[in-house]
Amino acid sequence: MLSDDSSPYDVIVVGGGHAGAEAAAAAARYGARTALVTHRRDTLGAMSCNPAIGGLGKGHLVREVDALDGLMARVADRAGIQFRLLNRRKGPAVRGPRTQADRKLYARAMQAFLADIPNLAIIEGEVADLTVIDGRVAGAVLKDGRAVPGRAVVLTTGTFLRGLIHIGEVTIPAGRIGEGPAMGLSTTLDRHGFALGRLKTGTPPRLDGRTIDWHGIDKQAADDDPVPFSTLTARITTPQIECGITRTSQAAHDLIRANLHRSAMYSGGITSRGPRYCPSIEDKVVRFGDRDGHQIFLEPEGLDDVTVYPNGISTSLPEEVQASIVRLLPGCTRAVILRPGYAIEYDYVDPRELDPTLQTRRIRGLFLAGQINGTTGYEEAAGQGLVAGLNAARLAGAVELAVFDRAESYLGVMIDDLVTHGVSEPYRMFTSRSEYRLSLRVDNADERLTGRGLALGCISPVRAAHDATRRAALDDTRRMLESVSLTPTEAQRHGITLNRDGIRRSAFQLLSYPEITWDQLAVVWPQLRDVPPALADRLCTDATYAVYLDRQRADIAAFRRDEAMVLPALLDYGTIAGLSNELRLKLDTVRPVTLGQAARIEGVTPAALTLLAAHARRRPAAQVPAE
Amino acid sequence: MLSPDTIFAPATGYGRTAVAVVRISGPQAGPTLAALIRAKLPPARRLSLRSLHEPTTGELLDHALVAWLPGPATATGEDMAELHVHGGPAVRAAILRSLGALPGLEPAQPGAFTRRAFLNGRMDLTAVEGLADLIDAETEAQRRQAIRQLDGALGQAVETWRETLLDVLAGTEAALDFSDEGDVDDDVLTEAGRVTASRVRDAIQAALADGRRGERLRDGFTVVLAGAPNAGKSTLLNALARRDVAIVSEIPGTTRDAIEVRCDLGGLPVLLVDTAGLRDSTDAIEAEGVARSRRRIDQADLVLWLCEPGGDAPPPLSVPALVVATKGDLSESVSDNALTISALTGAGLGTLLAEIERIAATSLGSGDALVTRERQRLALESCRDHLDRVATDGARLPAELVAEDIRLAIRALGEVAGRVGVEDMLDRLFSSFCIGK
């Protein structure tokens, strides 16, 4: 371990959560000499809140992280104890792989992956300050005075920046329960003029599973055929478990109402915004009081762990009130709380301070990823971490930074949303955030991103070889489907009824008909029987969406045209005659990189865009992501 | 996949002009022009007379002067084509419709030509700034006009439809993004949602089927003055307009092209059009003038058929006509059922104006015409088509495709009324469902 080395690291990653781990791994994959600084080595890969990975929208991000050779998917495949493919009965574009994870297995697997990376040093310590010389970061300074010089720094501080936990009337300065907050870095960011804000999130109490009556409640089982996250995982071998389902009752709601004044969220103790999609149980009762109850999942935190995560009762009520509420849940009348739920407030940096590369404009060489940018969720953090780590390494190597756009990935959607609109609540991914949902699917993340990752230098040889094989099989099969065809008369002989228009249709076209199945076509063309089922599913999906995808391609081409128009980094909006002051201010806050991004800023008029266009320059085609 | 779309838009204003110019810019400009004229491209940078046909049906649209302007030495720096067509809104609308139906062509957004011109280095900064001012002024004028003429009726209707569809979308998106939540219905499109979508579709269809009254209200109620040569059409136009806009002379056949006067009649926008007198002529230019007169008559909202005492009765017309006996100062003998006027003395003019006003008022009606621009019409048609699929196939289509059609329908409405952000939808979603375990 290198603890106080005088020769600078290429990249220093601050924080060892989901963003930090991916940032460090991505930088190291690129070949950068990387250091990861974390309070404690044994908390690397910790899940502070819900022990689950993936879900709707989030599952897309995990697959994209995997396509760029990140760690999260492979770690979750080793630690997952309840794999479920959400939206299985809906279309492939909106399916979401999710698994509950064994907390210990997850951390262990993540630590093993990180330990295997040769050019990554892990340093235990707290970063108290940054060294900044002439507007450029030059390293980090630890609380104990050690200096760690580096060419680029990625901050992934999660909820630690001036973290403050609330449990009823009690407040505890902390990054998460049992760990101290990071105060020094907030001061550093303040000093350099960053716009800081406060956000809030919460977590439920943890229960002792031995005190829950599992027989008296409903169960939810894992899928029979668990679908792995990573294309490198052949199959899931970790044992799968069930979780329990219970519900809040009117009696519980009444108790919550009676104690609202003691909840930190409602007593005035917390003023910052929490996420609407992850409301506390207090919020649910206040905002949706008419519902007769709210569903609660009882999720075991591990195979050999008695801790149970009651998903759905995040709260900042006093501990004794939490205990009473829990005991009003069916199956939990004797339940014992191991650790109370809490709300936590923390500092975040207005993400409009960032370029779409996740580099800050105030301090060059400084990158931010994860909750510090106002997001929530492990998957959102991991995605940003990967992009920030890769770009930090590229910056250290003096290579042009990478931007992912909205038309190629959810990573691009997320980063563009953040740097263009900022946040008013912790930001979480949904599939509905993407305009190109039918194109950005979990089943084609590798096709969208692995090739790009290769060009950017973040794909290991193992994945590159694997991807080449997969891609060849996909291309060959697609070509085969397009090369064989039938007339309606010939189809009829095989029992397939088509419009008798005499038009010859390829096997690929036939698959776009909802009533025609792969197996039917395998009767006509026996070579289809040799295609692996996953590949067949993938091609059926492409065929089903073909008409919509064609239109989406036209939309994407238009989008890319606007994205190809680059605005100068130092453009002085004050000198552009004809812009209103309000618009100048907005443009100056966001500092759009492209004309397309400018158009997405609220309030930008066609006339203003015309003025901006006068300053835009066409980006060389090579820098635009390939279709 | 970076080839730019081809855009088109009228380059001349929306009022009635003798000639309207439609510009096409982009890689499809050449093929489009060839398809319209059903022939190979005319010589570059020359005006050539060609017949324009609807590319799919082959229906004759107009005889026009066309120009083929290969890039990059063009206004936008791209391949361009210009169509100089006859100025009537019907011709212009038919051409814009035909262009809009071609794959790869889309109506230009405000500023699009300028933007391309600038991007291709065809314009300097000062010129762009000037244009931005103009666009601003025009947008403001349009907004004021919309408020004044229609009391913002279209904006309000679109907003109502959009709000309604956002509610439907919040339901479909909730079922896609939060299907693992206890509070959310698993059905992507409920029967109520489908019915709502089809109700909005019907409302949009009704607005589209308004006989283009809104466009007429904006462009003016067109009154064409027609009749035999020297029947006194130009004299009457001048008398009505109280200024010498048409060249009046004693020589029959002086007016060879249509001349227009816009006037306000009892608060209604009325466009008076003087035309060449109808007769068979051997003079090629006059013959073209006569042909144009006939077309203007066909497109008129009202024809004033002028005849001298003892002159010809009007030929059979496809549009409402009013027979006006002119030169009342010269003769006593006029037919009983015709208005008699004397442009010279002013006799009968008041009665004639009152009669035109009565007919115009009846025709324009006080109803709520919504659609006043072709661009709005195209966007609403696109919205209707997406909703059509939701209404008819919503129960059968996969969930994400139903959502896709609703999203595209809302986007089309956004093009009429301003953009929609994902946040709009999320606000809706989070206020209607209890999301979050």
Question: Your description of this structure?
Answer:
The complex is a heterodimer of chains A (627) and B (437). With 627 residues, chain A is an alpha+beta fold. Chain A contains 20 helices and 24 strands. In chain A, the strands form 6 sheets. In chain A, strands 1, 2, 6, 7, 8, 9 and 20 form a 7-stranded mixed β-sheet that branches. Chain A has a 6-stranded antiparallel β-sheet with strand order 14-15-16-17-13-18, with helices on one face. In chain A, a hairpin with a 2-residue loop joins strand 7 (127-133) and strand 8. In chain A, helix 2 packs across helix 11, helix 3 packs across helix 4 (103-115) and helix 6 (250-258) runs antiparallel to helix 8. The two termini of chain A are 43 Å apart. Chain B is of the alpha/beta class and 437 residues long. Chain B has 13 helices and 12 strands. In chain B, the strands form 2 sheets. In chain B, strands 3-4-5-2-1-6 form a 6-stranded mixed β-sheet. A 6-stranded mixed β-sheet of chain B has the order 8-9-7-10-11-12, sandwiched between helices. In chain B, helix 5 (153-177) runs antiparallel to helix 6 (191-208), helix 5 (153-177) packs across helix 13 (422-432) and helix 6 (191-208) runs antiparallel to helix 11 (374-393). The longest helix of chain B has 26 residues, at 125-150. Classes of the chains: A alpha+beta (627), B alpha/beta (437).
